[in-house]
Amino acid sequence: MKNETRVPISRITLRALAILAAAGSMNIATIPVQEHFLYNTQASTRFSDDSAIRDYSRSSVESLLATGGIKGYPEDNTFRPQGTITKLEFLSMVVNSLDPDGTKLAEGVQQAKDDVEDGISYYDRYKKRGTLDSFWGGKAFDLILGARMLDIGISYERASNGGNWDTPITREDAAMMIVQGLKSLKGEDLEKIYNVVDSKDGNYRRIAKLIGDWDEVTDSDVPDKGRISAGASLQSYDIASLYASGIAQGDSEAKFYPRKYLTREDSAILIEKAVNPEKRAKVTIPEADKKVDPADGVERTTLKQTDPTRRGAVDGDTFIKADGTSIKVVKDPKSGVIGANQPVALEMGREITRVSDIITTEKIANYGEKKLEDGSLSVDLGFIWNTDVDTYSGTGEYLYNPKTGEGHTSSEWYVIAESLKPTDKGTEGEVRYLGLGGWCKYTYIESYGWYLNTTEVSDFTEIFEANR
């Protein structure tokens, strides 16, 4: 048959194919494969371009060749170590390497068949669409759909064109697929194990120190300088997880190059370390940077809200509000935010000197200066930058709660909310409102934990309108 190759099959692969055949999508008699990528073959490391395989990747390449995870090009006996690998090929590598007997994949396929809505299963609905039939002559249907049911590679499968599975995979997308595969197929949740969370107690920022090009991983404003795609990496948590676990180390400068295409030899390294924890590098997560308090050395004084030229407030200042009442400003020990849980808006009415390309003066609106369309008091009184002169608050929109008299930047409100997060276990779908007149809205998700899902300005505005 045209474009088909008959290949030797190991016992393990035969069992996996038998499971897929039972699911109704594989014909074991003849297994079509796309170009050089084979499910399992006899290993041979003697290629005409054998010398092109780099020393650092040779053992990983030979290991995957021996197990059939990857193969050379039989038409010219080359391996092409610096060649690219498609998304579908890498998905197959991940699934076959982490689920060698095909049990988990078969479960995913069965889930798709059991998920029936309006008289048709999820499986048959996708069959009817035909969007996945173009990949490997339709023989990849169960692989893609079964993996999707296991939450592996879902960002591609959801695309209307079927997912561009036949295009080269980038390194950041390969990181995502490995993290998803380990979690679903091996129960190894790297993000949870290494606490890859961007919070005060999380390791996300600490792990970032291990990654030589972290700015490129996270920066969406870097101009395109020959990169494969523009924009910040959507998989920064996955990349951080691979570094923390020792699966990825980057080059000699610890750079990951998230948007470059993954090469065939590098795919072998990542897969081998994912499958064999003993092959992973030993990693020590750096300590967090000691925060320098910008208020250190600032002489404490009395500040008046009616004085627009005053400096920003710091812990220990006395603040006289517009109504003449005074309050001793303190830093909240739980959140670390100045003035948290105090009935005062320390920046309200202050003129701020802003230094950018030019020096400008911005004013945080006085009480009542801005109003919503319905006539109620505004909650967004301006914007504060971390480079503003004599300013010691966080950054973002300055949001004022007229019900409690408290005001902070959006970043500070978020930190306050995080400090009030519940620690006891809730139930699925439960919602709790904590402190500050309903500012902190949490939902408990069984597979995740407590999740703060109200942080945007629009959400704050809605809360104010509901509670004013």
Record keyword descriptors for this entry.
468 residues, 2 domains, three-stranded mixed beta sheet, 15 helices, 11% strand, disordered C terminus
Explain how this protein is built.
This protein has 468 residues and is an alpha+beta fold. It folds into two domains: 11-279, no CATH class; 347-467, no CATH class. 31% of the residues lie in helices and 11% in strands. It contains 15 helices and 13 strands. It has helices spanning 11-22, 55-67, 87-98, 103-114, 122-129, 141-149, 154-157, 171-186, 190-193, 204-208, 214-218, 236-245, 264-275, 410-419, 457-467; strands spanning 116-117, 120-121, 302-304, 318-320, 326-328, 351-355, 359-363, 380-384, 396-401, 406-409, 431-434, 440-445, 449-452. Strand 11 and strand 12 (440-445) form a beta hairpin. Helix 2 packs across helix 13, helix 3 (87-98) packs parallel to helix 13 and helix 8 crosses helix 12 (236-245). The radius of gyration is 28 Å and the shape is elongated.
On the 0 to 100 scale, the average pLDDT is: 76
Distance between the termini: 73 Å
Number of domains: 2
Poorly predicted regions are: 1-44, 157-161, 220-232, 366-378, 455-468
Rg, nearest Å: 28 Å
Number of DSSP strands? 13
Secondary-structure element order, N to C: HHHHEEHHHHHHHHHEEEEEEEEHEEEH
Largest sheet: spatial strand order: 3-4-5
